[in-house]
Amino acid sequence: MLQIENLYLFLFILPIISFLYASVGHGGASGYLALMALFSFAPETMKPTALLLNLFVAGISFYYYFKEGFFNKKLFLSFAVTSIPLAFLGGTIEIDAAIYKKTLAVLLVFAILKMLNVFGKESENINQVKLWHGLLAGGIIGFFSGLIGIGGGIILTPLILLLHWGNMKEAAAVSALFIWVNSAAGLVGQLSSGVTLQTDMFVLVAIALIGGVLGGYLGSKKLNNRSLRYLLALVLAIACSKLFFT
C-alpha cells in the first residue's frame, strides 16, 4: 500500500489532517479518504484504512474532551443505539467503485463546510433531542459510515449544532465517541466480509497519532487555527473534484 508516488508528501500531510480533525473531536476519516484519493490509493484499501485510523485518532480526541468534562452521555446514546448495528451492516456491503467515489465526494462537502466553520455558531438555548429524532439520525449516519468508511462525525456535529442539541464542545465530545463506535462496528463488518488489515496500515496509524494526540489536547482546551483549516478545506475540495470527475 505504501508503494506510491510522493510517499513522503503523503506522510507529511497525514498528521496535519489528524491534528485538525482531532482538534474538533473528529477521527479524520473523510480527510484520510480525500488524501488517499489524491494519491490514487485503490478503493478497496481506502475504507478499512480510514476506519482503522479513525479508531485511534477519534479515541484520543474523545479522551481529551471527556477529561475536560464535555461529554453528554444521554445525547450520545440517543444516536449510538441505532448507529452501531447499522454501521456494522454498512461495513459488510461492497459497493461499485464509481458509486463509492461519488458518494464520498458528496460527504466531503460536509467536511469542507465544517472546516470553513459554516456550522460553527452556537446557541445559548439547548433543545432536548427527541428519542425518535436521535434514533433515526443515528441509524442513517451509522449506515453510511460503515458503507463509505467514515465515522459520521462530519454529519453529526453540524446536525447537533444546527438543531441546537448541544454546544460546540459537547458536539465534539459526543461526535468523537460516536465516530469511534461506528468505526469499530464498520471495521468489524469489513473483517467479517473477508477484508484483511495490512501491516502498512499500522504504520499510518502511528504517524496519524502524532497529529491526533496534539490536536485532541489543544482542541479540548482552546484552539483556533483558521489558516490551517482553510488549507485543509482546499485539499478536501481538490479531492472532492477529483472524485466527481474521475
Can you offer a commentary on this structure?
This protein has helices at residues 7-23, 29-38, 43-67, 73-92, 97-115, 131-148, 153-162, 168-192, 199-221, 226-245. It is mostly helical and 246 residues long. It has one domain (7-245).
Strand proportion, as a percent range, falls in under 5%
Q: Using the alpha-carbon principal axes, give the shape.
A: globular
Radius of gyration: 16 Å
Name the average pLDDT: 86
Number of domains: 1
**What can be said about the biggest beta sheet?**
none
Residue runs with pLDDT of under 50 for 5 or more positions = none
Question: What is the number of strand segments?
Answer: 0
The number of helical runs is 10
Structural class, judged by helices and strands? mainly alpha
Q: Helical percent range?
A: over 70%
Ends: how far apart?
21 Å
What series of H and E elements makes up the topology? Answer: HHHHHHHHHH
